[in-house]
Design a protein that fits this description.
Blueprint: H1 3-14, E1 20-24, H2 59-72, E2 76-80, H3 88-100, E3 104-109, E4 125-130, H4 135-142, H5 147-153, E5 159-165, H6 167-170, H7 175-183, E6 189-196, H8 211-227, H9 235-240, H10 252-256, E7 257-260, H11 285-295, E8 297-298, E9 302-303, H12 304-326, H13 336-340, H14 342-345
Parallel strand pairs: 1-2, 1-7, 2-3, 3-4, 4-5, 5-6
Antiparallel strand pairs: 8-9
Length: 354
Amino acid sequence: MQTYQILQAWGKILKGEPPSLSIEITRECPLKCPGCYAYEDAHLGGGQTLRDLNDRRGQALVDGVLEVVDRLKPLHLSIVGGDPLVRFRELELLLPLLLARGIHVQVVTSAFRTMGPTWPNLRRLNVVVSIDGLQPEHDLRRAPATYDRILKNIVGQRVTVHCTITAQMMKRTGYLAEFLEFWTPRPEIKKVWFSMFTPQVGDQMPEILSPGERARAIADMMQLRKQFPKLDMPAVVIQQFASPPRSPQDCVFALTTQTLSADLETRITPCQFGGNPDCASCGCLASMGLASIADHKLAGILSVGTIFNASIKIGQKRANSRVNAIGHPQAKDALRILQVKKDVAAGNKEGLGL
């Protein structure tokens, strides 16, 4: 993240507006991956699931996304799903319009189909391809988005490979190194990211890393970043996996990102995972990246997190003033940070550490 981007985001926070937006633009996905949080029963808070929503397509989807973006004015937009490439024709229309607004756009996909031929040349666009480990495990979990299909569909593209580390991977020494040895030499790959599997509270799943496996993954990444320049993970970010934010109220990413589901109205809280995520086991790379920035001390004295917490408080007061001036907003217009922090509005300031 560049300094000017941090300053832009700070300006949004001071106004009580989340600088980042994530939209599940479709409920559809050709994959049925074990452990996918988007289709868990608790993802939308219970009562309905992603597949139950009435999503949009065609011009209605294009117009709906643009309306949300023009209203919320995010600096960064993540387009997720489902799989966004299910709505490839709409994406072809949307991406130039979004980028023309100066927004940094990230499309997260399984690469089950080809992408636009112009995408590699679009500034501020990052295409992230999710890959679940080495070919035998990946193909079993993520068919029809197999290794062979991904390799075919990314030809001529410039993509970021993202792999979620699971307990199964860490049971074999050298697994992450083998993964990097396969993917980093390929010209289509501009960088690689690792995150860790994040369960819900109370989950008992084979993907969940034990404390020892988590520690080994951290140690492996710390070494591998020196051997593989395309592993785009600074040491300060990797180290955050050892002590993730304790709750959504302590998570900079959760507090600064608004997430909407496929009807473009349903809000996903307390973060992109929805439900009741086990923050002690959080493996979200975005969370770790922003936590590392918050831990940075200016002039060796004042942490960025301290400034952030004060800025959240100022932004909250400004947002409350706007609400009081215009009356109660519609549900779709309420700010994500206010919803997550409504306990603070009631007088409990512990969540922000104020």
